[in-house]
Amino acid sequence: MAKQPETVRFAIMGCADIARKVARAIALAPNATLSAVASRSLQKAQTFAAQNSLPDTVSLYGSYHELLDDPTVDAVYLPLPTSLHVQWAVAAAARRKHVLLEKPAALNTAELDRILEACESNGVQFMDGSMWLHHPRTSHMHQLLSLSHSGSIGNVQFIHSTSTMQTKPGFLESNIRVKAELDGLGALGDLAWYCIGASLWAKGYQLPASVTALPDVTRNAAGVILSITASLHWHQPNQTEATIHCSFLSHTSMDLAISASNGSLHVRDFIIPYREDIASFDFTFGAKFVDLHIGWNVKPEQVNVPNLLPQEALMVQHFATLVAAIRDCGSSPDNKWPEITRKTQLVVDAVNKSLDLGCKPVFL
């Protein structure tokens, strides 16, 4: 698809594996162009460019400061280790670069607030890299959750989500996600970010009244969380319970099940769809047992939602649209996205605090 003159010029700061996926997404998004890539050395940036067949028009830098000095860059995508987010996201915002930040956004809410304050004071857009929120399937499910929708499944009463992965050999010894000095949140930041975010999404981003970590947590020798289960509880406007389970030690799963007063939703690949071009979920409305309880009156309906672009490209496209509106039309940044990120981070902090308190409830 041909790029338009008003495309937003992106830079990638750091050459982590996820950066390859986002570089492809920038190439696919109709309103975005990859302008620059930086790593801790020029050689690493050059290797990244060669491995991903980047065009010669992409500037390559051997330091992050050099990238931030590039006046042609509108927005920066940061896939850096979480421990580096506050330093470089604040630096990017100070240079009036819009910030697309990989999740988890920060190690704690205090660090995240420094990032968000820098973005707000410099008038730049912030968004974290929760790609699944931009998939049209997510919007379709949201319509069924809406209380104003005639086919609404009703009041959400129970949410269950999992994010588990079967790791490759050596992951538990060398991956940055299990290194205390790089990504100290471990599975709580890398995987539970999705499940917490999905629970908040299902509740219209209302914060839970309390959060409790379960005592089945597994840590490595450095104290980094490898597996965790937690529960979230809402009192109002109706009582809702959510359970999340996230682990580097289990077979891959990405389940999201939502039970409500009139129906239910179930999606088995909510974080990364099985296919790029179409995604599905199961929807059940008004289910009852037949006479003698020997069956059901309805079967779950599989709803298929086609997708013209991968969800990561839709994320880039949406972010670029916001950036272009600020750059070209004097619009204000959309506060929806930093608010979503901050609420997710608050719950991450609450799970951590509950662990520190011996798995006692933490009230928000």
Automatic annotation (TrEMBL):
<dbReference type="InterPro" id="IPR055170">
    <property type="entry name" value="GFO_IDH_MocA-like_dom"/>
</dbReference>
<dbReference type="Pfam" id="PF01408">
    <property type="entry name" value="GFO_IDH_MocA"/>
</dbReference>
<dbReference type="Pfam" id="PF22725">
    <property type="entry name" value="GFO_IDH_MocA_C3"/>
</dbReference>
<protein>
    <recommendedName>
        <fullName>Gfo/Idh/MocA-like oxidoreductase N-terminal domain-containing protein</fullName>
    </recommendedName>
</protein>
<feature type="domain" description="GFO/IDH/MocA-like oxidoreductase">
    <location>
        <begin position="145"/>
        <end position="265"/>
    </location>
</feature>
<dbReference type="InterPro" id="IPR036291">
    <property type="entry name" value="NAD(P)-bd_dom_sf"/>
</dbReference>
<feature type="domain" description="Gfo/Idh/MocA-like oxidoreductase N-terminal">
    <location>
        <begin position="8"/>
        <end position="127"/>
    </location>
</feature>
<comment type="similarity">
    <text>Belongs to the Gfo/Idh/MocA family.</text>
</comment>
<dbReference type="InterPro" id="IPR000683">
    <property type="entry name" value="Gfo/Idh/MocA-like_OxRdtase_N"/>
</dbReference>
